[in-house]
Amino acid sequence: MGLLDWLDERTGIKQWIQKKKTQPIPAHVNIFYCFGGLSFFLILIQVVSGIFMLFFYVPDPAIALDSINKMNNEVTLGWLFRNMHRWGATFLLATMFTHMVSVFYHKAYRRPRELNWVTGVFQFVVVFLILLTGIFLPWDWKAYWSFSIWVDYIATWPVIGGYLSNLLLDTFTINRGFVTHIWILPLVLMVLLWFHFKMVRKHGISGPL
Question: Which pTM value belongs to this model?
Answer without folding.
Answer: 0.89
